[in-house]
Amino acid sequence: MDSSDPLITFNEEGNCNHCEDFLKIRIDYINQDIENKKPLQDLFEEIKKKGRGKKFDCVIGMSGGVDSSYLAVLAAEHGLRVICVHLDNGWNSPIAVENIRALVEKLKFTYSSYVLPWSSFRKVQLAFLEASIPEAETPTDVAIQKAVHDTALKYNVSYILSGGNVASEGILPDSWHYNARDTKYSYAILKNAKLNRKYFKSQKFGFWDEFYAKIIRQIKTVYPLNYIAYDKHEARTILEGNYGWKYYGSKHGESKYTKFVQTYLLVVKHNIDYRRATLSSEICTGTISRDKALQILENRPFTQQEIEEQIIFISKKLRISTDELRRIIKLPPKWYFDFPNNFKKLGLMYDIYRFLARKEKTSNF
Asked: How many other CB atoms are found less than 10 A from the CB of residue 37?
């Protein structure tokens, strides 16, 4: 990590706050013993117990990526009755769609597609893009949460299984990816674009929606990949060898828009290279050396030819000219703290929730 995070701090030994937090706190929430299967087995047994008398034991949000795909495989191996939910925001790569289809069929899971209304969603995406913030993908991130929670509520399911994991995602600065559930922040961005809040309705999932789902209805989100010694590279090998799964080119490359945002837009606008966070997490868990990570970072995450093709595709999809998209890309960078937000209030509320969740041993991410 480096000063591309404007809020980063370093101690006297030269270690940044992210690695200190990871090594002192987050690493305790992952199982690093490859032989210890009991934590995952106990978790899945509890999920089955809660699912008795219901149609499904749990909900899994599927993107077609490595983490959610491997999570689905683990759930199938342990006999869970799963309803897989995929958010269709109009940007899915064909490879990701095929990955989901093949997995769902082979694992014999129920599948549900949550389709966003493109006419309004396109305008919301443009509003966030023009806000010039790192959270250009917040409309999708929050819509995913709405999709899986709405499905859990519909079928009275007690557990949502997430592919999020500390091993490869334990480090992610607030300044790079602010809380997607802060509706005050999202509404400020819509107001800045002179866009009515009604356009955000189809993907809105704010704190009080989450409060109802988690506290009133007692729906728990758990992270099974933290219950095993998770190796993303090994998981990919298993998926490719046993399930016909195909790689989509880069982290989050299962979405064409996410790939554009994370491999190009954030790099040239905010000097944010998401690989730094992923590689830093892997260094802390010992799955890669720092020298190897620095070697990887010597190469840019994109080629100019690829970006030119993406700019044409993205602008056409958003119904703007390529000149307009280039203008937006060149706008000065902004951050979440440049807009009205509920950072302090939500921080306190989530601290209380995490404390209660840890006491119940239901959350570890």
From this structure: 14
Given a contact cutoff of 8 angstroms between Cβ atoms, the answer to whether 192 and 131 are in contact is yes
Q: How far apart are alpha carbons 242 and 156 in whole angstroms?
A: 32
| Structure tokens, 192 | 């800045």
pTM: 0.89
Domain map of the chain by residue range? 17-359
| CA gap 8, 17 in Å, rounded | 7
User: Residue 345: left if φ>0, alpha if ψ -120 to 50, beta else—which one?
Assistant: alpha
Mean pLDDT of successive 10-residue stretches along the chain, which has 365 residues: 91 92 85 83 96 97 93 97 95 89 94 92 95 94 94 97 89 88 93 92 84 92 93 92 83 78 94 93 90 94 90 96 97 95 85 65 43
What distance in Å separates the CA atoms of residue 49 and residue 44, rounded to the nearest whole number? 9
In sequence order, the β-bridge partners of residue 191 are none
Q: Which amino acid is at 200?
A: F
Residue matched to tokens 């106990």: 42
The CATH classification number of 17-359 equals 3.40.50.620
